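Researcher: I'm preparing a figure for a lab meeting and need a structural model of a single chain. I don't have an experimental structure, so a prediction will have to do for now. The sequence is pasted below. Please return the structure as tokens so I can convert it later.
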Amino acid sequence: QITPVHISCANKHQEEKKMTINHNNNEQNGEFVAYEGEEKLGYINYDWVDANCFAIVHTVVLPEHKGKGVAKILLDAAADYARANSKKIQDVCSFVTAQFARSDKYDDVKA
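Model: Understood. Here is the structure written out token by token.
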């Protein structure tokens, strides 16, 4: 299952660019992958713990795209998926653990 999500990103030094988040999911694992056009920016990988919970195990942003908020956009996409499907997220990845601790906006999807 691939679900594309389109996000517009712009800053004062760039024209607006379209970021697409593709979600690939199967019974064992899945990933959210960020693209700008054909260029891969980063991804979040997860493993299914059970039918109602997945564990995010890796968050990776390619070096040339660090500092652009890509990892946070990917986590938000994962959280939106969890909310829409009544799932919970385990934070195995250190980035996700830090984001869960910093913000209460993920409290509803924390396992």
